[in-house]
Write a structure and sequence with these properties.
The complex is a heterodimer. Chain A is 0% helix and 54% strand. Chain A is an all-beta fold. The mean pLDDT of chain A is 94. Chain B has strands at 4-6, 11-14, 19-25, 33-38, 45-50, 54-58, 61-66, 71-76, 85-91, 105-110. Classes of the chains: A mainly beta, B mainly beta.
Chain lengths: 114, 111
């Protein structure tokens, strides 16, 4: 059974650019959550999608957005990149609502903003 | 008060010893509790889920839950160098869909 797949694995972008990250959940999983992980802040919740609906959003500026498609694949977008956006971005999929059922993480996308 | 607090590390234990990791949480409505292991530079990996008060054993790992005290712990018996990682505690949310994580406890097993 394939796990959670995130693409790309690594990205280098310039300040001011925008970026789109992709997450394909485990087959049959309907919930996808996104997290930002930095050395100083740990795992910070970005948003959660279930059946194409965003049900919760973390405390991040509006430059961070996401969506989920009918096949449960999800994308997140960061516009007007800042140096502080450099981080490991992780997505996690779960069969049911996030937090109720077990969540499994992808390998992450490491974003570097220069 | 932080939503999830874990004992500060790093925790250094000799090979073969027991590593004890603690986690307290503020959401009294949490029903499910998850422990993740994260190796340096890798993504978190789910190693244990516990839903009821008491102990749950899985190989060398034992999770202990006390909902009344809002406390969950993870014991690693017969610690091995391969157990050297950061362990993250995540209690389920009771009224939203935001799974929050503790800052993690870094464990180093000395050979």
């Amino acid at each position: 059974k394939a796990g959670v797949t995130q693409t790309p694995r690594y990205l280098i972008k310039t300040r001011g650019q925008q970026v789109t990250l992709s997450c394909s959940p485990i087959s049959g999983h309907r919930s996808v959550s996104w997290y930002q992980q930095t050395p100083g802040q740990g795992l910070q919740f970005l948003f959660e999608y279930f059946s194409e609906t965003q049900r919760n959003k973390g405390n991040f500026p509006g430059r961070f957005s996401g969506r989920q498609f009918s096949n449960s694949r999800s994308e997140m977008n960061v516009s007007t990149l800042e140096l502080g956006d450099s981080a490991l971005y992780l997505c996690a999929s779960s069969l049911g609502p996030s937090g109720v059922t077990e969540a499994f993480f992808g390998q992450g996308t490491r974003l570097t903003v220069v | 008060q932080k939503e999830v607090e874990q004992n500060s590390g790093p925790l250094s234990v000799p090979e073969g010893a027991i590593a004890s990791l603690n986690c307290t949480y503020s959401d009294r409505g949490s029903q499910s509790f998850f422990w993740y292991r994260q190796y340096s530079g890798k993504s978190p990996e789910l190693i244990m889920s516990i839903y009821s008060n008491g102990d749950k054993e899985d190989g060398r790992f034992t999770a202990q839950l006390n909902k009344a005290s809002q406390y969950v712990s993870l014991l690693i018996r017969d610690s091995q160098p391969s157990d050297s990682a950061t362990y993250l505690c995540a209690p389920s949310p009771s009224n939203d869909y935001k799974l929050s994580f503790g800052a993690g406890t870094t464990v180093t097993v000395r050979a």
